[in-house]
Structure formats: C-alpha cells, structure tokens
C-alpha cells in the first residue's frame, strides 16, 4: 500500500459550513422580503392577514436558522443530534446548488466547493455512527485508478488484477479481500448505478474526482456514501492515485 497521497491536503468542510451560513442569511432575507412586500397590500384584503402571514414566514425563517445550526453542530460534534439523514438530504438537494451559485459569485471554484461538500457529507454520514456488515459495503472505484498501460480488464471483476503493484488497484483489491467487502471498478456513472442496483449495498465507499463524487452522492441519496477524492498527478482521468490507508480507515469506521 505504497501511495500516501502527497498531491492534495484534506478537504475542509469549514468553507461549506461558512457558505451554508451565508445561504441561510440570504434565504431568511428573501423570506422576509416575501412577507414584507405583499404585506403592503395584504392589509387591504383583511386587517389580520399580515400578522398571520408574518407568523408563517417567521416559522420558516426559524426552521432555516435551526436547520443550519443543527447541521453545524452535527458536523462539529460528530454526533447524530436530530434528523441527520434528513438534513443530509436538504444539503444535497437544495443547499448544494444554491451554495455553488453563491460560491461562484464570490469567485470560489466549483471544485473547491465540491471538495468541501464531500467533507461535509462524510462528516454527516460518519456522525450517524452506522455499523454495516462487510457484505453490505461496496467500494466503488473509478476506472482511471488502473494503470493506463495495464492490459488486464478489471472493470466488473477486480480479482483479475495480477497484483503487480504498478497501480493502487492492487492495494484496493487486497483490502477488499482482507475485509471481505464488495469492490467494483466502474467506467462511469451509468455503470456505477448498475453496480449499486445489483449489489444493493447499505453503504458505499466511493473514490472519484470532485465532480463525480458530488453527482454520485446526489444520485445515491438516501444511500449513505463516504467519498474519498483521488489524486491526479498526470491530470484528470488518467493514472490517478488514492491513499489506500485512507480507504481502510474509512472502512474500519463503519464495519460491524
Ligand atoms: S496492479 Fe493490477 S490493475 Fe494495476 S497495473 Fe498491476 S495488474 Fe494492472
């Protein structure tokens, strides 16, 4: 298991948390405006209407603030405080697209935000303290981890790897054998989805780039996914690397 991943530092969830706070403030501002503007005309319909509509919007604002606080606390404490699974869904389905827009307005690259999102997602999954049997865990790998000059076809059957050690597929195949977990190399999102449908895992440990991990986490929800970013010393999609020790640590944290 030689590769130690010197190409990139650990992604930080702080950025995503900060952007989440900004998004929350913007949402609350929009909710307030949504109340204030029609209120100018609501009085004309019924004198009590502005108060009722105001209360509804206050509850919505409170929920947005409370939800953000819960998310921050869950990731900070690493504990499943309340409805973490549901919260992860809100982050994935609603907050991420908004945060990506706000981040791009602030000049933050999509990949930086996605790295932070993956770290945040991992924190939420780990805070659920899931314990899964080995045969219900699937390690999903991108095809680009395999040495481009290797003539063996490991897609669909990683056991065909001759374990020559020229790429990280060897260490990952050995890891899967050691812990008796399912492992698969997929050439793209469609094949990855097919593997997930076939194997029906309870948890996926996925290795990929920022873009593929983000879309994979979105597609798989509510299935929990722990994402590990690959390194790309030769550019995207070719001879990528991953620190097998990172995968082993993630695996041990969820194994029964
Ligand atoms: S470790 Fe396996 S996949 Fe990688 S180059 Fe060697 S035989 Fe090919």
Summarize the model shown:
This protein has helices at 14-45, 49-77, 84-105, 110-127, 169-179, 189-199, 210-220, 244-254, and strands spanning 137-142, 182-186, 203-208, 225-229. By secondary structure, the protein is α/β, with parallel strands linked by helices. Strand 3 (203-208), helix 7 and strand 4 form a beta-alpha-beta unit.
Please describe what this structure looks like:
InterPro entries: DUF116. This is DUF116 domain-containing protein. The chain has a four-stranded parallel sheet with strand order 2-1-3-4, with helices on both faces. The relative contact order is 0.15. The chain folds into two domains: about 15-125, no CATH class; about 130-255, Rossmann fold, CATH 3.40.50. It is elongated. The protein is α/β, with parallel strands linked by helices. Helix content is about 55%, strand content about 10%. It binds iron/sulfur cluster. Iron/sulfur cluster binds next to helix 5.
Summing up helix and strand content along with how strands pair, one would put the structural category as: alpha/beta
Could you report the average pLDDT, rounded to the nearest whole number?
Answer: 89
Could you estimate the helical fraction of the residues in percent?
A: 55-70%
Radius of gyration: 22 Å
- Could you give the order of the helices and strands? HHHHEHEHEHEH
Q: Could you tell me how far the N terminus lies from the C terminus, measured between alpha carbons in angstroms?
A: 24 Å
Number of helices: 8
According to CATH, the fold-level topology of the largest domain is: Rossmann fold
Low-confidence stretches: none
Small ligands present = iron/sulfur cluster
Please tell me the total number of domains: 2
Major β-sheet, in short?
Answer: 4 strands, parallel
- What would the principal axes of the Cα set say about the shape? elongated
């Amino acid at each position: 298991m030689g590769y130690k991943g010197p190409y990139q530092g650990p992604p930080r969830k702080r950025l995503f948390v900060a952007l989440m706070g900004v998004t929350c403030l913007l949402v609350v501002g929009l909710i307030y405006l949504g109340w204030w503007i029609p209120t100018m005309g609501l009085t004309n319909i019924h004198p009590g209407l502005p108060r009722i509509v105001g209360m509804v919007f206050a509850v919505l604002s409170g929920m947005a603030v409370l939800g953000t606080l819960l998310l921050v606390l869950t990731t900070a404490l690493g504990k499943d405080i309340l409805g973490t699974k549901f919260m992860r869904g809100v982050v994935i389905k609603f907050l991420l697209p908004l945060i990506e827009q706000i981040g791009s307005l602030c000049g933050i690259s999509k990949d930086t935000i996605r790295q932070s999102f993956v770290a945040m997602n991992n924190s939420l999954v780990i805070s659920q303290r899931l314990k899964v049997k080995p045969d219900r865990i699937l390690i999903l790998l991108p095809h680009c981890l395999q040495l481009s000059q290797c003539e063996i076809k490991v897609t669909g059957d990683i056991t065909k790897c001759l374990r020559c050690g020229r790429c990280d597929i060897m260490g990952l195949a050995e890891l899967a054998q050691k812990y008796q977990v399912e492992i698969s190399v997929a050439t793209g999102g469609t094949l990855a989805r097919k593997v997930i449908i076939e194997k029906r895992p309870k948890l996926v440990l996925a290795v990929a780039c920022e873009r593929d991990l983000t879309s994979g986490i979105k597609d798989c929800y509510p299935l929990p996914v722990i994402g590990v970013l690959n390194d790309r010393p030769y550019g995207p999609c070719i001879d990528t690397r991953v620190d097998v020790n990172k995968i082993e640590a993630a695996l041990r944290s969820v194994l029964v």
